[in-house]
Amino acid sequence: MNGQPPDTPPQARDLNLCLCHSCGLACDMTDEPQTCPRCDAALHRRKPDAITRTWAYMLAALVFYIPANLLPVMNTQMLGEGADSTIISGVIEFWQSGAWDIALIIFIASIAVPGIKFVVLTLLLVTAQRRSTWAQVQRAKLYRLVEVIGYWSMLDVLVVALVAALVKFQALSDIEPRPGILFFGLVVLFTMLSAMSFDPRLIWDTQPSEEITDEVASH
């Protein structure tokens, strides 16, 4: 079936079925174009332009990732003296002051997590475009990992807000945000959009499919 080994289970498109993205109903796709009979949402066998949109969002996040790490994210004033802090310098300062837990949280949320997302999404995109059969189960798990860590992407922004609140409680001290925090917020936003745009079912599309090609092209 579609050039697959005879012991391979049929895919949903082989049975003219499509799962609704909104309510999860398995819908008959014999008559197209079609909407879900339960919630009236548009049906797609695959997310339209999934690879193109994922590449676009990820590259945009990568562009913003550079100023997010180079520009200061906050300015702290203590006893009339102010100093700008980037993400890296903030991690070093917290570590040297003994707050290694906060330093570790900022490092993981601001540097490690975006870096992992970039590497994993690039791997998923390249292998999906090549219709590779390499480590499909492991790649599916990697995608779920990106989804899980995406929920913690705003952790660094929350840490900065917490530090700002703590500083303002002290006398003769103040803290102000700097442009770096805006760029970091954009990195978080575009990495989340890139992960949401990728269709993990493409991992299992190892054979050319005219149905999917025509459907994506029509959108």
Automatic annotation (TrEMBL):
This is Paraquat-inducible membrane protein A. The chain crosses the membrane at residues 55-74, 102-127, 148-167, 179-198. Keywords: Cell inner membrane, Cell membrane, Membrane, Transmembrane, Transmembrane helix. It comes from Pseudomonas thivervalensis. It is found in: Cell inner membrane. The lineage of its organism: Bacteria, Pseudomonadati, Pseudomonadota, Gammaproteobacteria, Pseudomonadales. It comes from the Bacteria. One of its GO terms (cellular component) is plasma membrane. InterPro entries: PqiA-like, PqiA-PqiB_transport. Pfam families: PqiA (PF04403).
